Amino acid sequence: MVAGLALTGLFLHAAGVAIPGLTGGSPVVLGFPHPKAGIEESDHSLSEPTAAPAGGGPHAFVAVQSDGKTPVAYDPCRPIHYVVRPDNAPVGGLQLITDAIARVSQLTGLQFRYDGTTEEPPTKNRALYQPDRYGKRWAPVLISWDTTAEDPNLAADVAGEAGSARLALTGTPTVYVTGGVALDAAQFTQILNRPGGTAHARAVVLHELGHLVGLAHVTDPTQLMFPEASPGVLDYAVGDLTGLSQLGAGACVPQL
Ligand SMILES: [Zn+2]
How far is CA 69 from CA 15, 28, 61, 107, 211, in A? Predict the structure, then answer.
């Protein structure tokens, strides 16, 4: 039983900062350390999203562009790097992450690159650019297995939280540049030890990865992005799929 297992999608990092850039051919100036523009940017989407189901379904986005409807998404013209902090990981934890990432990649077309393990601890105000640790590009998405001491938001029934940091320059769409996924190590160990637990654990990771790429909660309990685990909802449903398809079709922003 996973009834009562709550899932949240809090922002781990910046809660949306629009940063004015200089215009007129001057180099763009961000108000904090940042990589050169357009690292690894291709001139086309690296892959296309899976088409949304006919008729769609209920979904919501964490943030939208200034038109009020187009979702803020990751740049599909460059890979999304991610690292995993292995401390506290349950048995099979990395495989769980790998499988869930593959599912999100298949649906959104977003290309993820696993850069290995890290010793970086999860923190509330994580630097978006850490050249000494990760090289001269936006820091990778950090996935970690946390204790409730490390992340008090994971107390009680909350099994994970995830979010991404979004940036915009004057005249560009807003895009996510990095993010974080915090998974409750102790709860995952419990879930995985139950009969059928692997499928439930995978569902929780998929829910959190939904937040990572830009899905918000919905009120329909048949969708995976419902804020609590529902019996039998173990994969993305029609509304989730509709949202993920749009999140894989974001704008490319070589200026960041
Ligand atoms: Zn959630």
Answer: 18, 27, 9, 20, 17
